[in-house]
Design brief:
The chain is globular and about 35 Å long. Helix 4 packs across helix 8 and helix 8 crosses helix 9. The model has no long low-confidence stretch (mean pLDDT about 90). The protein is built from eleven helices and no strands. The chain is mainly alpha-helical. The protein starts with a helix and ends in an 8-residue tail after the last helix. The protein has a single domain, classed as Hypothetical protein af1432, CATH 1.10.3210.10.
């Protein structure tokens, strides 16, 4: 299923490296999200083949941000509607880029495309809801949100504490996030198994 990346692991490194050159902070975020998503997927007893898709998709989930102007990614202060429109393109762009490399990357591309979908259907780019959202994307959504809240963003003044971020995620179970994924995340968090990073 993921034979393209398995046979050519340097391809994943090249994609992530390109993103790091374009915007270092986004690449660092991707590494942290991958670590969290891997632990979360294991806690959810995800099958081995799907576990691989989670890991790759988490690592490459923001690949499409290479199509977003660097000035928008690094902008100080609140983003405009036009800025957000640019940013909201990145899940679909990243998925399309992966599929252009090989159709065998579809399970990874699906996770990349779905990581900003929301359980109640209010997300993007497709407005999927509930179990219509690919499971890989539902896992990455929680990992991505936790890391984003607990690290500096140029467009946001406040950085959440880890406890605050966990509480925010738990409060949004059933609206933004899959309740079963949130429950697993909360269990991992309270047992000290969510990776810590600077």
């Amino acid at each position: 299923m993921h034979s393209t990346l398995r046979a050519h692991p340097q391809l994943g490194d090249a994609l992530e490296g390109a993103l790091g050159i374009y915007h270092r902070g986004t690449a660092q975020h991707a590494d942290r999200v991958r670590q969290i998503a891997n632990v979360l997927a294991a806690e959810l007893s995800v099958r081995e083949v799907e576990l691989e898709a989670v890991s790759w998709a988490a690592w490459l989930h923001d690949l499409g941000k290479m199509a977003v102007p660097a000035a928008v990614l690094s902008k100080k202060g609140p983003l405009t509607e036009a800025d957000w429109a640019e940013i909201k393109r990145h899940p679909a762009v990243g998925a399309a880029l992966l599929l252009s490399l090989s159709p065998r990357l579809e399970p990874i591309a699906a996770g990349v495309r779905a990581h900003h979908e929301r359980w109640d259907g209010s997300g993007y780019p497709d407005g999927f809801a509930g179990e219509d959202i690919p499971f890989v994307g539902r896992i990455i959504a929680v990992a991505d949100a936790f890391d984003a809240m607990t690290h500096h963003r140029s467009y946001r003044e406040r950085v959440f504490t880890r406890d605050e971020a966990n509480a925010e995620i738990e409060a949004k179970a059933g609206t933004d996030f899959d309740p079963s994924v949130v429950a697993a995340f909360g269990h991992l968090y309270r047992s000290g198994r969510i990776p810590k990073s600077d």
